[in-house]
Amino acid sequence: MPRYDFDMLTIGAGSGGVASSRRAGSYGARVAICEEWRVGGTCVLRGCVPKKLLVYGAQFADSFADAEGFGWTVPTPDFDWPKLIAAKNKELDRLHQIYVNMLNNSGVKIFEARAVIVDPHTVEVGGKRYTAENILVAAGAWPETPDIPGIEHVISSNEALDLPQLPQRIVIVGGGYIAVEFAGIFSTLGSGVVEIIRQPELLRGFDEDLRVYLGEEMKARGVDIRGRTQVARIDKDAGGYTVTTTAGDRIATDLVMYATGRKPNTKRMGLEEAGVSLNDNGAVIVDEWQRSSVKNIYAVGDVTDRINLTPVAIAEGRAIAETLYNNNPVVMDHADVPSAVFSQPPIGTVGLTEAAARAKYGEVDIYQARFRPMKNTLSGRSERTFMKLVVDAKSDRVVGCHMLGQDAPEIIQGLAIAVKCGATKKQFDQTTGIHPSAAEEFVTMRDKYVRPPEKAAAE
Question: Are 245 and 238 contacting, i.e. CB atoms less than 8 angstroms apart?
């Protein structure tokens, strides 16, 4: 008779938890997964997927506007927000069922209830206790808001995905990728958007040039970006809400959305009581094998607060399944992970920023280009594309690729392979470009960029 009810019990049925559980189940492990809300997790139900669908919906506004330059006569379009939300929800229902089916087909037992760790081998789920040889924590993260007067009036990205109507005016607080993406969605669909950020530029942690140029393009699209600004209070009034900044400025709006960060879902889960070490932000501290301070309790994804991206969580989860149940020890490689921001225009990036590369290698060579893409010549759109390569001067290896512009995520995905393989700038130069395309610029940049002295001194 087995010593435990399950070989592995997973807490959280998001992308990481589902990927690990499915793979472990396919190798013959007895697996259960617990989900308090709905199978699918943040990415499928409250993040990447629904947000990208709204981005697609918003982009039609640009297509209608650009069509005339290419000979099309387009009647004045009419947009129906509730119709888009209904279509989005229908797709999420389909994806949810696919996830459920995948788990069932892998022999994974699904518990639709909250799970609390009782001890290193026991989990209480919906009032019943189950034992497991290994426990995987994949509970994700949740939006966090500051404690200021009127914070009860705000919404998060969760609610923004299901608004009954498109707001005429919205204040978005935050300069990270979630705030930037929703600012693009709402502004492109016609809402008046004010974005409040504490930093001078958007997207802290991204390459400085990308940050500056994205801000310029968003402002050109009508987003009112208020840098070096903080909110003091939010008041509800007859016309909606009034946001008051610490400088005393008052902004009238119909809706206030906060996207100032997310915190790991580890509260009241019994982790610390079971001996699991958490950092100051509540994230589970893990080693390279995704193992916590308790040897049989593992964690993946946003709950570890490292690289909070869906493909990373999936790779971490699969590595655990391979290591524990397929006699194939795998360590997730967190270096050179590509990422994208589905802003408008979008960003794609892989490798080191210029600042990080200078700190690591000392001498670096920079190649960059900023141009108006061919599509915009006939449409009359002024939006410009920006591309940048960061090269280690000593080895000639390309250590960073960054792009702002249409199709940036699609283009950077391919370049991520080159960066991962250690391609040199010479090899980039030897690669024939596809013409005419924007992507060819990455293999035709020949002249090193010399930063103007006044700009270099400021940095």
Answer: no
DSSP, collapsed to helix, strand or coil, labels residue 450 as: coil
Q: Are 438 and 414 in contact (CB under 8 A)?
A: no
Task: Give the model's confidence band at 353: pLDDT under 50 very low, under 70 low, under 90 confident, else very high.
Answer: very high
Query: Which runs of E-coded beta strand occur in 174-284?
Result: 192-196, 224-226, 231-237, 240-245, 250-253, 255-258, 262-264
Q: How far apart are CA 299 and CA 320, in angstroms?
A: 9
Q: How many helices (H) and strands (E) does the chain have?
A: 13, 21
- Specify the domain boundaries for CATH 3.50.50.60 within the chain: 6-142+263-325, 151-260
- Note if 435 is an active site residue: yes
Overall fold of domain 345-447: Enolase-like; domain 1 (3.30.390)
Kindly state the greatest CA–CA separation across the chain: 74
The answer to pTM > 0.90 is: yes
| Average model confidence (pLDDT) across the chain | 95
Catalytic position from the list 121, 153, 402, 435: 435
**At residue 5, does pLDDT exceed 80?**
yes
Beta carbons within 10 angstroms of residue 108's beta carbon: 25
Which residue from 317, 236, 283, 273 is spatially nearest to 124, judged by alpha carbons?
Answer: 273
DSSP characters over 125-149: ETTEEEEEEEEEE---EEE-----T
- Rounded to whole angstroms, the Cα distance separating 243 from 252 reads 6
Region of residue 301 (left: phi > 0; alpha: psi -120 to 50; beta: else): left
d(CA 365, CA 440): 19
The mean per-residue pLDDT over the stretch 38-57 comes to 93
Q: Say if residue 457's pLDDT is above 50.
A: no
Six token digits for residue 148: 């200021």
Would you identify the CATH topology of the domain 6-142+263-325? FAD/NAD(P)-binding domain (3.50.50)
Does pLDDT of 300 surpass 50? yes
Superfamily of the domain at 151-260 = FAD/NAD(P)-binding domain (3.50.50.60)
Domain with CATH 3.30.390.30 in the chain: 345-447
